[in-house]
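> Could you send the ABC transporter ATP-binding protein prediction when you get a chance?

Sure thing. Input:
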Amino acid sequence: MTGTRVLDVERLVVRYPGHPPVTAVDGVSLEVGTGRTVALVGESGSGKSSLARAVVGIERPAEGQVRFDGAPVPPLGLRRRTGAFTGIQMVFQDPSTSLNPRRRIGDQIADGARAAAARGQQPGTPEEWLERVGLPAAAVASYPHAFSGGQKQRIAIARALAARPRLLVADEPISALDASTQASVAQLMRDLVAEIGAGMLFISHDLAVVRRIADDVHVMYAGRVVESGPTDRVWAGATHPYTRALLAAVPEPDGAGRIPRAPSTEERAAWADAPAVYTGA
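Output:
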């Protein structure tokens, strides 16, 4: 870990009511430093999004703690978050639900800029942020319906980064995009986060993109982190059987790819029983 630590997740547990209650996140610890992109990967249902929602305060932890710049993250209420905690920004999977269809794009990006100004940051203008994410400055006068899915996600990224966050949480931000734009949008996020000196927690099931942009990776299975370490070392020397199964399913660069068979009940039981590992120095 390099840079100033902006996020500390310590033994986090997230449960949902039921009979019995469902434990979505089971004792996860991780950290994110400035200038770093930390990826959280795993299958759907592994607990990635529940962890992301707890990091930003949408979900209340049952146990453990989430700290931002050393201070516990308070739960989000009905009112807009104020003060230093506007330094946490989130980009959601579907920009069509996170952008207000009745407000102009420029006004929505200006919301982020005002949050930055309130913390004494130089936010830049909506026009500048649109150009930085590859859209024309004139788009400030348009409404979300005028844009494609990929363009809307770039707008959502511009709005989040206009707030000059210390931490950007990106929950499956590219999964709704077409394959031709996924890698470019992910790389754009990494580049802009590094440029403003923030840290990013990038949640994804796309291991090919994660390998390209992440400095460190945490692999989640059944609510637990089963393997973690610098991304290149995890790819080169994965130890946990679940990580190996995930990597075996990544398509080959020539596009031929492999179609993995469905894991057996016995294999999944072995994954759950195998101890967590750190693959690093």
